[in-house]
Write a structure and sequence with these properties.
261 residues; six-stranded antiparallel beta sheet; elongated; alpha+beta; two-stranded antiparallel ribbon; 28% helix
């Protein structure tokens, strides 16, 4: 177990040993322990670091196993901790937080201080499904570029992008290096910058294939983006993306509309 005595000794040597006492009082013990562990996870340990084992927490704070499990369970559900079967409980990686704007994944992750990487899963040219034909204003039988990629930040899976791009707007696209920003390729190589998009966001349960690629469980909550992107007035991309909701958050600013005169 990675949460054994050695890890506890390391915490003592680095000054992260928890010393706050748990007392009888109005606040339940599991809530007191939750606060202690939350401080440890958010201010003292780095993402991926092991926290003390259940046995250590019981011994250090004189609480029951039920109390420990209740506190840990709350923090796991809230996304601060994650359990790894057979290994222990660890500080969860902080979710990527994005403002809602049009940018490629690569550009966005770099702007947020993360290192983006991409695994190309599918690259092909074929007739797209009916909703994409309509979105890209294609004629019956027209083909489009199909590009499916797993996107990661700092080596951790964040999203799956399943995109269809206009073959007439981007001839030869599939021969390009598709591990970076397609939006940059569109602008720099084709003179067709993608400058606006319409998209919807919905909460969905992860299907088997999505869960496997994102490293989560089937049925786990994901954010699904459905986007049609334009270069001027021309639709050139129809994409669906699935983001792990515990690793990606969208921040937006909203304003009140002006009252009519």
């Amino acid at each position: 177990m990675t949460t054994g005595t050695t890890g506890h000794d390391e915490r003592r040597s680095t000054g992260t040993r928890m010393t706050t006492r748990i007392t009888e009082g109005a606040e339940p013990k599991h809530q007191q322990l939750r606060r202690i562990l939350l401080d440890l996870a958010t201010t003292r340990l780095a993402p991926g670091a092991a926290i003390p084992s259940e046995r250590q927490l019981i011994a250090e704070y004189g609480v029951s196993r039920i109390t420990v499990r209740e506190a840990l369970g709350q923090l796991v559900n809230e996304g601060y901790l994650e359990r790894v079967r057979g290994k222990g409980t660890f500080v969860a990686r902080r979710p990527v937080q994005s403002t809602l704007h049009l940018a490629s994944f690569t550009e966005e992750m770099r702007a947020l201080g993360h290192v983006p990487t991409t695994v190309v899963l599918v690259r092909e040219e074929r007739v797209p499904p009916a909703d994409t034909v309509a979105a890209l204003r294609l004629a019956d039988g027209d083909t489009a570029h199909h590009l499916k990629r797993l996107r990661m930040a700092d080596g951790v899976p964040v999203s799956i992008d399943d995109a269809w791009l206009s073959a007439s707007a981007f001839p030869g696209l599939l021969e390009q290096d598709l591990s970076g920003s397609v939006y940059s390729l569109a602008a720099d190589e084709y003179g067709t910058p993608i400058d606006r998009a319409r998209q919807t966001v919905a909460a969905k349960a992860a299907a088997d294939d999505v869960a496997t690629l994102l490293g989560t469980r089937t049925g786990a909550p994901v954010l699904e983006f459905d986007r049609v992107s334009y270069s001027g007035d021309r639709p050139v991309e129809h994409a669906r993306s699935w983001y792990r909701s515990d690793r990606y958050r969208v921040q937006m600013e909203v304003t009140a509309s002006r009252p009519s005169a």
